[in-house]
Amino acid sequence: MKPTKAIIYLFVALFASYPVVAHAFWWSGDDKQSGLNLETGYDINTVTTINGRIISVQAGDDHRNAQLELESNGSRVVAVLGPQRYWTENGIALKSGDYVSVRGSRAQGTNGVVYILVQKITDTTQETEVSLRNESGRPAWAGGGMRNGAGQMNTRTSPMRHQSPGRMGGGRMGR
Amino acid sequence: MPRRTISTLILSIAVSLTIGLSWFAIRNFSSAAPIAEDNLRGLALTIAAAMEGVAGRDPSLRSLASFQTADIAYAMILSPAGKILFHSNPDLTGNNVGDKRYRSVLKTGTLGEERIMLGTGEYVYEFQTPFHLLGKTCVLRLALHTWRSEAVMRRARFGVALIFSLLALGWGLGITVLWLLRRQDAQEKQLARQNELARLGEVGAVLAHEVRNPLAGIKGYGQLLEERLPEGRERGYAQLIVRESLRLEQLADDILFYTRSDNKLSQPGNLLTVIGQLMTLLTPQLETAGIKLVLNVSENIKVHCSEKELHRLLLNLLTNAIQALPEGGAIGVEARRRGTVVDISVADNGPGIEPEMRTEIFEPFRTSKARGAGLGLAVCKKIAERCGGSIAADAAPGGGALFVVSLPVILPEDSV
Fold first, then answer.
1. What residues 17-76 of chain A have any CB closer than 8 A to a CB of chain B?
2. Top-level CATH class of A27-141+155-172?
3. What is the pTM of this model?
4. Which of A103, B306, B357, B358 pairs as cysteine with A49 (C-beta 3.0–4.6 A)?
5. pLDDT tens across the length of chain A (175 residues)
6. Cα of B157 to nearest chain A Cα, Å
7. What is the rounded distance in angstroms from the CA atom of residue B76 to the CA atom of residue B85?
8. Parts of chain B with a pLDDT under 70
């Protein structure tokens, strides 16, 4: 092997294994990148309503949820609509530029992106609305209907305290 | 400065630099976590103070609804009885909190902080502090997003990754350069050896045509004089002429042999026969030098090496051993079958060979002796390789030098 070739191969190998810290792309619904449970995760403590304009719509696929990229008060938020198949069958027609009001559980991923796990979305431009979760956050695609208070439990992780959806500060809501 | 010293120095500097940078990176990384924690605590205290100020001005807590920052995941104010007096999700205001963790804050009057995972899968920093409202001590519970405050940790992680990657790159380049230099060195040596052999070939041709023939005449006349002259000084001179002519003839033979083609030799040779011939030849010399020869060759082994070449090879090795024992000693010759090869070892109890010289001594013209051209062992190597075998030098078990010649054995099926 010629020395020049050997050096080129070495550089290629080194750069291929270069441990670049993953800076997430803005548009990303990948659970691995956000570190969030985007499909069934929800926390009523963080429920909020945001109003904004759709920048882009991503229909999703078998591995990624349907998502919207919104601009709200100068900041960007990703609204997670749920599995692509469910959204295709039960969602409403949304397009870039529409103004929407989104209610859901707000979370910030490990990539710094702010997500809202949508409970209800209203397209104020087209005046259409769809509910994707019940009040306690149980997703419609999880089966068994959207019974109120049917929040799904997540596994407790030690030593971190874990707060399940439908609970406030570790205890079930006293409604 | 010797090359080895320079290499050691460079390696020491590289290792020190690696250790230093690794220490710096790890130290920087380990100090980042407390800084991030301090950032979060500071932020929580600031928010708590601001919220207490707002609540002080508006005890109905309605104004707090507009108190929002990007860092707050949620905020709630709990009464001593556990009722939610305020929640950033207004739907939850008025409910009872489901846990009793706030009580320890009320009881001790100190801050409480921990990491919790929310139902969304997000890890947040939860901060609880006593909160004074209308003369009562309540509890403010804040859950903060950690992403902004942990920027210092991400930077530290990136720094560690960068430093280790650069170190890996540096070491990779260093090793490549070293490898290239060594390869170049080896190529230069190979070239020098080829040039040496080419020159040797020319010398061999000259010796064959211009020296050997006159030398034969000188030796012949010397022998004639040795026979005809009476005992005395003149006859001694004639003997000297013959002895030196023979030495020159041997040298010419060695050079010619060494520079001849590298064709493989495959004629059969009987090891025991050759050793017998050598015993007859060398016994007077061994006795004169006071050297004891210990033979351990019982099996009659046939090898793929002609008796003439085998004789030359073993004679060179034994002569070498005799020369290494000027004040007497012992030489051991042993033959041991090892599968399809036989290992013929010649060991002496002389001064031995320095470890770094053990491969070099088989190169032509490498000698530590005052007399001799340094071709004997090179010829041995050439014969061993031409016979499909090898030769190696080592230290003998009891000190001294050990030469092991490995030659392929003629198997019964070979002779059919």
1. 18-21, 35-38, 41-48, 75
2. mainly beta
3. 0.56
4. A103
5. 555 666 667 667 656 654 443 333 334 344 677 889 888 899 999 999 999 999 999 888 878 889 999 999 899 999 999 998 889 888 888 889 999 999 999 999 998 999 999 999 999 988 899 999 998 889 998 876 554 443 333 333 333 444 555 555 543 333 2
6. 8
7. 7
8. 1, 208, 260-266, 366-373, 413-416
Please report how many Cα atoms fall inside a 13 Å half-sphere around the Cα of residue A37, on the Cβ side.
21
Which of B101, B120, B141 is closest, CB to CB, to A37?
B120
Contact B161 A166 (CB under 8 A): no
- Token readout for B321 is 């051993």
Q: Are residues B97 and B224 in the same domain?
A: no
Kindly report, residue by residue over B153-169, the tens digit of the pLDDT.
Answer: 888 989 999 999 999 99
Q: Which residues contact B332 (CB under 8 A, 6 or more apart)?
A: B293, B294, B295, B296, B345, B346, B347, B348, B396
Looking at B84, B117, B149, the residue that finishes a domain is B149
Of the candidates B241, B258, B275, which is a domain's last residue?
A: B258
Residues B274 and B411 grouped into a single domain: yes
Give yes or no for A139 touching B (CB within 8 A): no
Number of domains in chain B: 3
Q: Do B169 and A44 touch (CB under 8 A)?
A: no
Binary contact (A151, B119; C-beta < 8 A): yes
Domain carrying residue B194? 153-258
Judging by DSSP bridges, how do beta strands A65-72 and A47-58 pair with one another?
Answer: antiparallel
- Quickly tell me which residue has 């003997």 as its tokens: B239
Question: How many interface pairs between A and B have CB atoms less than 8 angstroms apart?
Answer: 143
pLDDT value for A61: 84
